Amino acid sequence: TEPLNLCSVTQLPQRLAQLEVQPDTITTIFPRHKHLMIKRSQRCRRCEHNLSKPEYNPTSIKFKIQLAAYYHVPDIVIYRIGELVPGKVAQLVIKVTNPTNTGTTLEFLSLTKLRELKDADKEVEKEDKPVSAINPLRQPSIVTAVDQSIGLATAQIALPSSKVYLPPRDDAAEFDDGGVDLAGHTDDRELVVWRKSNKVGLRLEVTPTTGGEQVVGFGIQYHYTNTVFALDSKEVHTATMRIPVFLSLGSI
């Protein structure tokens, strides 16, 4: 008898996958067809605008409208963080990048202030929205949306009161020897650590809690400029956007 080689023997799921043959060894397994996943588009519940519409033809190279939030929302990442000690203040440096081609002003808000402003905007929207704007063919949602960010922040953060100017994105800025154009704005030296093109480093102070995963939460408010003109108007529309941000600092 030959010695048993477990690497050449099929497992039970492999045998049950081919009931007609039930192969005993790896060499007798037949290839199976792979079930392809269906590409689905996703629409907004409020305005029914396409949020995600995949391309069905993988070889297509046609121009795609950049509708993802990655191209419009400021990118915030952790650049440097000090030692986390429970009850003691630690220095946190974040890098903020402006992905748009227009400059904007960034302002920090607390989570409580952010919820108050969003509730006020919802009340104004309900009063201004006409009844005819509701689509009668749309099936109403039976699931109540719950804010999952409540209670997510476990550490405290000291937010600055001054605003920060974010220059527009310029692909040729790295080849330019000149400084960053702040468009008349003045930086707070206690807040701004460094600048490079459309990126800026900001210094914040965080206070960890007693053990566990440390997560800080705050809100950002900035002005978004829509550079895509509508068919009936050539005006540039500007809107004030407010977005919650949560950063995981690690565990103690």
Structure explained in plain terms:
- The chain has about 250 residues and is mainly beta.
- It has two helices and eleven strands.
- The protein has helices at about 10-15, 110-130, and strands spanning about 40-45, 50, 75-80, 90-95, 105-110, 155-160, 165, 190-195, 200-205, 215-225, 235-250.
- Strands 3, 4, 6, 8 and 9 form a five-stranded antiparallel β-sheet that branches. It has a four-stranded antiparallel β-sheet with strand order 7-5-10-11.
- The longest helix is centred in the middle third of the chain and has 18 residues, at about 110-130.
- The protein is extended.
- The mean pLDDT is about 80.
Features:
mainly beta, 252 residues, 2 helices, single chain, five-stranded antiparallel sheet, four-stranded antiparallel sheet
Give me the secondary-structure category.
mainly beta
Low-pLDDT residue intervals, each spanning 5 or more residues: none
User: What is the number of helices?
Assistant: 2
Span from first to last CA?
58 Å
Q: What portion of residues belong to β-strands?
A: 25-35%
- Gross morphology is extended
Oligomeric state of the chains?
single chain
The beta-strand count equals: 11
Mean pLDDT score: 80
> Helical percent range?
under 10%
The biggest sheet, with number of strands, parallel, antiparallel or mixed sense and barrel status, is:
5 strands, antiparallel
Radius of gyration (CA) equals 26 Å
| Helix and strand sequence | HEEEEEHEEEEEE
